[in-house]
Amino acid sequence: MSDRWRTIVIHHSATAVGGARSFDRGHKSKGWDELGYHFVIGNGTDTPDGLVEVGSRWHKQKHGAHCKTPDNFYNEHGIGICLVGDFTKSRPTPRQMASLSRLVAFLTSRCGIPSDRVTTHGAVTHKTACPGRYFPTGYFRRTMITQAQATSLP
Hints:
The chain is α/β, with parallel strands linked by helices and 154 residues long. Helices cover 38% and strands 14% of the residues. A five-stranded mixed β-sheet has the order 3-2-4-1-5. Helix 4 (94-111) packs across helix 6. The protein is globular, with a radius of gyration of 14 Å.
């Protein structure tokens, strides 16, 4: 595993439906080389609810294309996780949240990323509402900390 990873950035797709394959096609139509995220978590439309799809960028340990900043830090060193859904209109499903918590617990442990380096797209750029007002940030942070503590027990 690459030692490049320093942070995790959570996104929503801002679409009611989708999955890694359809997002890959959409990103390529914008001129990108492939899916911009490292992981996509399904909502039961294109893929099963809560299914974690591993993108080709993760397999290659390649930089992301999901969170542009002037210094490009969050693309170069951030793991991009996208939950399918528009969380400006509705909440993520319980299965999506459970999968996100497990995935983040694994990644923070495996990559040595502190929990305070797990953030959202909107918190980084302040130019988007991503992952939306109905994304339960407080609940997620509490769950993430609990998961992290459970995985660090002997």
